[in-house]
Amino acid sequence: MSGSASAGRTAPAADASPSRRHGASGDRHLPPPRPTTSAARPSRTADRVITLILLAYGLVTVASAIPQLWHFAAFAGSWMDLAGIDGTFTNTAQGDLWGRIGVGVFVVGWLVTAALSVRAIARGKLAWWIPLVGAIVTFIVVSVCLTVPLLGDPAIVAHFGA
């Protein structure tokens, strides 16, 4: 009779409730359903727009700085007038050299920043901060480049030394 007793019984029906499917205690452990591709990766439209606006602003800044730094003596003369320093900028040889180095740093800094930003956007990562950090680093390096010829000018040294 052992066969007839088990014949009348049926196996318990599988419970399809969410608590059972997602691993309630004592049940099979199934991973939660995976999100779809569009839900897994937010579009980050605002991030892309902000990043591109910052890159465009940086490009305009670099493009407007190139003529000023290329003709460093005129830039230094304007800076001396603004700072209230009497005299004219006479360290023109160093000024031309370091001004053109500053142009190169600006251009390379913007290109590296743009490449890193585009790469981050393509990978779906946040990128808005990259142009900000790139601008800060580039401006620090350019400022050091521009300080060298300014501090080598006798009028500027006399002004700050007095």
Can you describe this structure in just a few lines?
The protein has 162 residues and is mostly helical.
Helical region count?
A: 8
Q: Which parts are unreliable, with pLDDT below 50 for 5 consecutive residues or more?
A: none
* Mass-distribution shape: elongated
Secondary-structure element series: HHHHHHHH
Q: How many individual β-strands?
A: 0
Question: pLDDT average, as an integer?
Answer: 85
Largest sheet: none
What structural category do the secondary elements indicate? mainly alpha
Helix content: over 70%
Distance between the termini: 116 Å
- Strand residues, percent: under 5%
Could you tell me the radius of gyration in angstroms? 33 Å
